[in-house]
Amino acid sequence: MTRALNRCYNIAKLRERAAKRLPAPMFHYIDGAAGDEWTMRQNTGAFDRWELVPRFLVDVSEIDLSTTVFGQTISMPLFCAPTAMSRLFHHEGEYAVAHAAERARTMYSLSSISTVSIEEAAEATSGPKLFQVYVFKDRGLNREFIARCKASGYDALALTVDVPVAGNRERDLVTGMTIPPRLTLASLWSFAMHPRWVWNYYTHPPIELASVKDRIKGDVTTLVSFFNDELDRTVSWDDAAWMIEEWGGPFAIKGVLSVEDAVRAAEVGASAVIISNHGGRQLDTAPAPIEVLPEIVEAVGDRMEIILEGGVRRGVHVLKALALGATACSMGRPYLFGLGAGGEAGVDRALEILRTDIERDMRLVGCRNVGEVTPSRIRRVER
Questions:
Q1: Which of 1, 243, 232, 2 is nearest to 132 (CA)?
Q2: Catalytic residue among 28, 90, 99, 278
Q3: What are the tens digits of pLDDT across the range 71-98?
Q4: 272-275 and 251-256 strand pairing
Q5: Of 143, 276, 281, 368, which sits most exposed with the smallest number of CB within 10 A?
């Protein structure tokens, strides 16, 4: 790991380094969100409405961060969420994230719209793996995805349900973000100022949507156009139930923000819900996941695993989620900032920062294992 990465002491510093190393369209694709980006800010800001209550005179010489999600034991209550098109941010792309997750002994999640295929990602790592599914207009893809994941040894599936239409991602319009990247008046200067990224982009194989390339017709110019053209807006709970039965293993509904949807997910047989607003990239003014977590836990916490995704930047964020009843957390932007900041070593650094932070905070709050992070360790701040 480079000295520069070692001087990144938190996720915010990895973000700063990624901003320097990436052309503007790539960085702002990671960093941006929908509309006024209020929801994205609230995802992290809402954690400040909760305080952790430490207990002292506890032997915290040994800390066990391990937990179980989707039937797999992971080394800490945090794993890598699925993110699209990782090779836009570094030529090592999904391979870098998968390898880093395996070293950290946590779960790696592959997106349907990744730049490596289901099979290639599976071959890259022997660690626990989740595949994230969108429902395409070509319904045959759903059955194909499930069969390929079974054959490749994936441990879980997650159906993302919060993209009936792409969110209003205005930063991408301003920066000229396209797929594949191309020089425009908006982006020319930024690409010229990042020759290393340009060199790596043009000296490695072309970026493609590897898992769907043989089934998608026409060119993908932006992810917004891809979502709007290819995703099926008629998908229903009946479709989710069919996929759960067809898969026959751990299955999450991803993008849940209401008690009603969480209850419905349990009723159709999902083993988990992932509370998420897509990083604020879909409906601006949607609630922060930490705000709806307690009511969802109360409604379905005894029936399914509950994953919190959104806004996690510090170890205390993970502990607050656990204290409010989450099984674990997942995160996307933190490791993408690491990827942009330094490729595979940058992802290693992001995971190391968060793991170290969680372990330190466990000692400070007086908890020796994940099971001890209970509601007695948290209180709502009234202001």
A1: 243
A2: 278
A3: 999 999 999 999 999 999 999 999 999 9
A4: parallel
A5: 143
